């Protein structure tokens, strides 16, 4: 399940995607239009800026904007930055792998099914982008 934080991140990014190539958007505008608590949004945008998805400009006419095209930001990347692993178990995660201490990974049927679920989920999330979110809004 996506955390509320990840849902807010997608809403903020979709708002910025609609303004891609235009002037930066003030954080207060995003918070108001997308109904995201301002303090929560500040933290989310800083995280996204720290991984080079966003850029910010201070002062008059300042705000946030996407650093790269919304067509190039896939949903899996955003989920990993904000939410962490996409996989349902740490032993099947591609980027956040942790060995299970209480089972044999070679014979674990649960693990084998969760790998299938992970692969299916990634197949969609790595192909879909922020641009797909804004197209779906219409």
Helix content range: 40-55%
Kindly report the CATH topology of the largest domain: Arc Repressor Mutant, subunit A
State the low-pLDDT regions, or none.
Answer: none
Arrangement of strands in the largest sheet: 1-2
Beta-strand segment tally: 2
Global geometry: elongated
How many separate structural domains? 2
Task: Provide the structure class.
Answer: mainly alpha
List keywords for this structure.
138 residues; mainly alpha; Arc Repressor Mutant, subunit A; 2 domains; two-stranded antiparallel sheet; elongated
Question: How would you sum up this structure in a few lines?
Answer:
50% of the residues lie in helices and 6% in strands. The chain has 138 residues and is mainly alpha-helical.
Overview of the structural elements:
By secondary structure, the protein is mostly helical. The chain has 6 helices and 2 strands. The chain has helices at residues 4-18, 27-34, 38-50, 75-82, 109-125, 130-137, and strands at residues 54-57, 63-66. A two-stranded antiparallel sheet has the order 1-2. A hairpin with a 5-residue loop joins strand 1 (54-57) and strand 2 (63-66). The protein starts with a helix and ends with a helix. The mean pLDDT is 94.
């Amino acid at each position: 399940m996506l955390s509320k934080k990840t849902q807010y991140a997608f809403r903020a990014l979709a708002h910025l995607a609609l303004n891609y190539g235009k002037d930066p958007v003030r954080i207060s505008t995003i918070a108001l239009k997308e109904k995201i608590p301002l303090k929560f949004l500040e933290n989310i945008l800083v995280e996204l800026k720290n991984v080079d998805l966003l850029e910010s400009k201070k002062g008059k006419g300042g705000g946030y904007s996407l650093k790269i095209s919304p067509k190039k930001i896939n949903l899996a990347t955003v989920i990993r930055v904000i939410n962490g692993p996409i996989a349902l178990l740490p032993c099947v995660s591609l980027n956040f792998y942790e060995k299970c201490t209480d089972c044999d990974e070679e014979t674990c049927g649960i693990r084998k099914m969760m790998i299938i679920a992970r692969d299916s989920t990634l197949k969609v999330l790595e192909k879909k982008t922020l641009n797909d979110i804004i197209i779906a809004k219409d």
